[in-house]
Amino acid sequence: MSRAILKVENVDQRFAGLHALKRVNFELIEGEILGIIGPNGAGKSTLFNAIVGTVPPVSGAIHFKGRNIVGMPTHQIAQLGVAKTSQTVQVFDEMTALDNVAVAALLNSATVAAARSAAREELEFWGLEGHADTLAQDLPLAQRSLLELARAMMLHPQVLLVDEVMAGLNEVEVDDILDKLVRINRDRGVSLMVIEHNMRALMKISSQILALDYGAILTLGKPEEVSRHKQVIEAYLGVE
Ligand SMILES: Nc1ncnc2c1ncn2[C@@H]1O[C@H](COP(=O)(O)OP(=O)(O)OP(=O)(O)O)[C@@H](O)[C@H]1O
């Protein structure tokens, strides 16, 4: 039987006069890939920030495996198993790719040597082994996106929130990331929520898609249903 690993209940977020999330309710089923779409400013990143605790919601509950994580510090939420990538790739520019991943690996390693070894393995998974000694600032955008995913995986997440990692990438690079996301989901047991403006990409990998508009859920359903939804077409695709 499918069960929810993450349950978002009546989550509200407000910034001064702006009602950024309006009683948002949904479940992430364990093992699924849930795509998140919505126009600019719809509240997608705000939702992710609420889940990982960087900007906690003003009201509502977020249950991870039955435990309400609202109010917990981000590092504790990460330790429990919920991690996030950033919308803008956040790696340490002046460090090598290997060191970037090794720093994250230290959290779950007994020694520096063990962290470096885990980091090497992770770089290999993401196809970055040839760039281990390259400074992050010298990596092309696609490899920086992969590096951030590699860093996030060192937290051993059970739920990974992926915020627009495909922006600015070409079709081949997007397909490579999609393939890797499917593999961490299928082979490494990570449930995923993926924010993406690239609808074609999202439809390929998501079992369900959630559409946000003005902080509220427009619809949640199978990709083919959501892509036919009248308000999604109007709000997201901008068609009258
Ligand atoms: N910390 C904050 N303080 C004030 N306003 C914020 C804050 N975070 C987000 N907002 C506002 O909340 C609204 C939703 O922003 P959010 O970044 O969640 O949208 P989004 O759907 O992720 O958009 P995009 O696709 O452009 O990334 C926007 O109007 C934004 O300016």
Automatic annotation (TrEMBL):
GO molecular function, one term: ATP binding
Protein name: ABC transporter ATP-binding protein
UniProt-listed InterPro entries: AAA+_ATPase, ABC_AA/LPS_Transport, ABC_transporter-like_ATP-bd, BCA_ABC_TP_C, P-loop_NTPase
Keywords (A to Z) from UniProt: ATP-binding, Cell membrane, Membrane, Nucleotide-binding, Transport
All copies of domain ABC transporter, residue ranges: 6-239
Gene3D superfamilies: P-loop containing nucleotide triphosphate hydrolases
Keyword set includes Repressor: no
Protein's UniProt keywords contain Coiled coil: no
Alphabetical list of Pfam families matching this protein: ABC_tran, BCA_ABC_TP_C
